[in-house]
Amino acid sequence: MSQETWTAVDRYLAGLLGPPDPVLDAALADSAAAGLPAINVSPTQGRLLQLLARMQGTRNILEIGTLGGYSTIWLAQALPTGGRLITLEFDPKHAEAARANLARAGLTAVVELRVGRALDTLPQLAAEGRGPFDLIFIDADKPGTADYFVWALKLSRRGSVIIVDNVVRKGAVADAASDDPNVQGMRRFLDVLAAEKRVNATVIQTVGSKGYDGFALALVTE
Length: 222
Description:
It contains eight helices and seven strands. By secondary structure, it is α/β, with parallel strands linked by helices. It has one domain: Rossmann fold (3-Layer(aba) Sandwich), CATH 3.40.50. Strands 3-2-1-4-5-7-6 form a seven-stranded mixed sheet, sandwiched between helices. Helix 5 links the parallel strand 2 and strand 3. Helix 6 runs parallel beside helix 7. The protein is globular, with a radius of gyration of 17 Å. The relative contact order is 0.14. The mean pLDDT is 97.
């Protein structure tokens, strides 16, 4: 199977299972025009995040890694009236593009975007009593993922769901000798996840328009 086939199937499924959303399409186009890297989730992955949030009955979401706000929009659209989403972004350029995309989507009153290092912002959220969050989506720098997961647990409750993207790295995550810091970051995260007794977790391998990768899904049980 090839990348061409995976992409074709993704396009077919995205077109079949949901009507086009001009807001989401514009978010991708404007993010590209602003020079942001094309590392956002795919439309089918965005819909999966939205479905998980709805099935969870989510009212309070934390996202670590905003980029241009594409996944943020998918998640925020799942929130009921009165729901809130906080998203954290390190890069001011990315945050600027995300704010414009969120404003176009009519989500400025729903989404709070904080700019800065997540490892600085996460303790601030805890100090402010902003948790616990019903759903936490981690899609930021990969070497920091284990640390973000530890903070996600602190900001969770029993029944919270934590989703971590890009954990398979085209299969390289199985290579203990890899010198790629992104791979080693994910291996460190998976070690932490495996040792954590307060969650039930699994990893799902995926293929699609974003290539071969996967995500971790953890349910907080204690």
